[in-house]
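Lab notebook, design round three. We kept the backbone fixed and only want residue identities now. Task for the bench partner: fill in a sequence for the structure below.
Input structure tokens:
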């Protein structure tokens, strides 16, 4: 075992340039980080020192961390596909999306019959935009707001004063069961409550995800089966449907997630702490909010010195992403992009640029390799021996 604790931070949707097949996904020119920088004077001195900006050009510049990019092998461009690949879950299917024509009529009728609730929406949009558009009507009718963000998702929203959170979650579970039919299957059903008034609706921090059961064993399962800790912060647990997780820590937003991470860094454990920072995607990427996205990256940058100072000599920090969501691109959808990979430890002597990773699964394979486990993941090539 080279590192006792591994901290993995996923900057949800913070891609660094179009994947080789991005044009076939309709994402020619996508570059979440690069296009933000073109439109905003981004000030991130701490991430810059770690080589974060070097991942845009891969130009062999000096850095305080090993850096590279990872190419997606999965067929999607969403959180579920990206996180599956990160933890070496082999998945050769592309999850269904309903961007063009919405959800089919018979699917919506089945949902209405099972929930005994009216349905409004069946549109594509970011959560806050849909809620601003349909929230008042929902409050008048009590109907469920059902929509998709363009991802492989079915979002169900309700005002918490009209449909209490626990009741909304019950409806989401029913909808998840309805959507298990092969012809309707979506990657995840999302219960997304909101509050406020028609002139000031706000998403709450009580979002819950109902995902498919992973099709095969993940790195998380391997770690847990070998009595190592797997600590989930944010939506990580939901993305893997709870499989392979030993401790669940909920967080309502990026800042809370970072605070929970910093708290965990004071604890003695052996294994993986896995944090997803979803606000980059949900609040800023889908809403095409360049300024907000940039400011959220700057907020993270302020926390980086605190995180680095908490690391012990036998800790490894990996920062990456799961896909892109370029806020300068048209529409609301994710973008097919490569992702940054930073690896930092206090014991590294001469960190430098690594070769491009041919899959996000190389990260998961590296984590398993670190603990010298006989049980190996389905995919991925470890780069542990490159970290010196």
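Proposed sequence:
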């Amino acid at each position: 075992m080279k590192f006792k604790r591994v901290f993995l931070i996923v900057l949800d949707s913070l891609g660094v340039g179009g994947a080789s097949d991005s044009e076939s996904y309709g994402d020619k020119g996508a570059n979440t980080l690069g296009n933000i920088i073109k439109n905003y004077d981004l000030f991130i001195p701490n991430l810059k020192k770690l080589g974060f900006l070097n991942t845009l050009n891969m130009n062999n510049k000096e850095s305080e961390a090993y850096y590279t990019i990872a190419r997606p092998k999965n067929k999607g461009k969403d959180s579920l596909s990206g996180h599956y690949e990160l933890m070496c879950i082999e998945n050769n299917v592309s999850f269904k999306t309903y961007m063009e024509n919405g959800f089919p009529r018979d699917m919506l009728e089945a949902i209405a019959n099972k929930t005994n609730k009216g349905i409004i929406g069946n549109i594509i949009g970011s959560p806050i935009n849909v809620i601003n558009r349909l929230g008042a009507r929902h409050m008048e009718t009590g109907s469920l707001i059902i929509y998709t963000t363009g991802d492989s998702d079915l979002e169900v929203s309700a005002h918490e004063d009209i449909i209490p959170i626990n009741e909304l979650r019950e409806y989401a579970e029913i909808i998840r069961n309805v959507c298990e039919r092969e012809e309707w299957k979506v990657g995840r059903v999302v219960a997304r409550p909101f509050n406020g008034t028609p002139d000031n609706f706000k998403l709450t921090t009580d979002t819950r995800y109902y995902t498919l059961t992973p099709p095969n064993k993940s790195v998380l399962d391997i770690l847990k089966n070998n009595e190592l800790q797997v600590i989930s912060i944010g939506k990580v647990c939901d993305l893997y449907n709870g499989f392979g997780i030993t401790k669940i820590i909920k967080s309502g937003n990026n800042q809370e997630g970072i605070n929970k991470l910093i708290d965990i860094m004071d604890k003695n454990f052996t294994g993986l702490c896995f944090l997803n920072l979803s606000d980059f995607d949900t609040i800023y990427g889908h809403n095409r909010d360049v300024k907000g996205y940039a400011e959220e990256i700057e907020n993270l940058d302020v926390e980086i010195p605190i995180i680095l100072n908490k690391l012990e000599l036998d800790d490894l920090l990996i920062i990456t992403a799961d896909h892109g969501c370029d806020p300068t691109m048209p529409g609301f959808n994710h973008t097919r992009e490569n992702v940054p990979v930073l690896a930092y430890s206090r014991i590294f002597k001469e960190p430098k640029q690594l070769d491009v990773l041919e899959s996000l699964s190389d990260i998961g394979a590296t984590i398993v390799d670190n603990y010298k486990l006989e049980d190996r993941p389905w995919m991925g090539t470890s780069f542990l021996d490159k970290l010196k």
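Keep this in mind before ordering anything: The longest strand covers residues 188-197.
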